[in-house]
Amino acid sequence: MAITHGQVIEARSVPRKKLNGEVVAACILILFYMLFPLDRGFPGLPLAGKTVSPAFCASGLVLGYLYLTSAGRILSRFRYKFAFYQLLFVPILVLSSAISKDPVQAFQGCLRYTATFIFDYVILVYLVEKYGENWLAKVVIFGGVTSALIASVDTIIGIRIPLYQKLYDLNTQATGWANAGATAFDTFRAIGTMGNPIIMATLMMVCVPYVFNIKSPVLRVIVFAILFLGAAVTVSRTIAVGVVVFIVGAAFIYGRKFLVTMATSFVVIVVLGLTSVGTFLADDPRVLIWESRLGVPGVQGAENANDNVATRQEVTGKALKQIAGFGPKEIVLGRGVKSTAAVGEDMFAGYSTIDNATVTLLYEEGVLGVTLFYASFFVVLWRSRKKARVTLHWYNILALLACSISFDFEDYSTFNILVVGSLAIISAVPIKQSEDTLAIETVPNLPATQM
Q: Which end of the chain has fewer CB atoms < 10 Å from its terminal CB, N or C?
């Protein structure tokens, strides 16, 4: 089925094979990542007095199952370009963990990273090749809508699921931020299923490309609205640059009609929002947190919101100055996992990050590490660049990379499985180009282009 340039991309061709236990296992894995704060309070598997990352346990279990059902054929996907570069990066990460102040804790991060960016990629690219992408879009949409509703109901109505409160409390106690509840729940910033407003907002953002598999325009708008609400109640500004990437991508794919629709919708939303705030909700704390995060003069907390941006910029600048003074060995290999914590804590106690993925990688894993990490993404983007004309999945990777200026996205599993899913789709779904049309087709049982 050819898709003319500029049309909405809907469901791909129907796979010839019936879905079975392989897809069911992957769906459970994806929902596990989306509906539980695996990086924020969720308990790991106890082992020899330590705990093993829940993401590593879950992804390793599913990968092992697929190894058995595929008679080992899934292992060939480790040769694909993304997995190959990631396999080169992981030894650098292990070495960085060995020279860190807490090697055991750092190694836990290595396991989580390996599960998310290697195991999950191999799992998803194998299944997308075999069954198409519709099943993946459906489970992501279900998980995204569920997560968004949990966040929205909690923040707007005040109905909170005790499990998420308990996991949040466990995380704040373990990290020493026992009073952090005042910065999330009590100030009406939604943490949803992720245990953190920024992570929750990012989860909503990376769900966007999957919504275009919905055939019904009405249902598509409803799902978009729910995801938008789920992101809005977090009051996170971190994803702003990623949203801009999606707008540019959608305008490029869908043309002037998208821009007109988007502009009209934006004006309507702003007018209705300002009218509601000015008439009914001006003193509501849910509105005040929005105004403070936007830096509205005279609103309590506005100065803190502006200072937050300045603090991130200052910490990043300090880290870059220190990098400039590194010796040859540190330039190549960095100073070790979580060594950037000292830079942040120079600002104030508990600020254990510099909130910039590129600078963090350069500081902790050196030039070699940051080069291999980004090479894995940009090689796929370059080899699949023609798909930038037909699918927002290409922009999903670009949007997350753009957000790297605001936080260390590589430290998390959760939302990253959806970005890995987009990588799997643009890697596994072959593209056919003619003079007048550009189409993406799912062809079951054919080898991918090994991106």
A: N
Looking at residue 243, its amino acid is V
What is the C-alpha separation between 23 and 130, in angstroms, rounded?
A: 10
Residue for token pair 């330590």: 50
Q: Is the dihedral of CA 185, 187, 191, 196 positive or negative?
A: negative
Eight-state DSSP code of residue 119: I
Largest Cα separation within the chain, whole Å, is 65
pLDDT tens digits, 115-165: 999 999 999 999 999 999 999 999 999 999 999 999 988 887 778 888 888
Q: Are 405 and 241 in contact (CB under 8 A)?
A: yes
Q: How many residues does the chain have?
A: 451
321-351, pLDDT tens digit by residue?
999 999 999 999 999 998 888 887 777 666 7
Task: Give 270's strand partners.
Answer: none
- pTM assigned to the model: 0.85
Q: What share of the chain is helix, strand, coil (3-state, %, to 5)?
A: 65, 5, 30
CB 96 within 8 A of CB 334: yes
Backbone angles phi, psi at 50, to 5 degrees: -120, 180
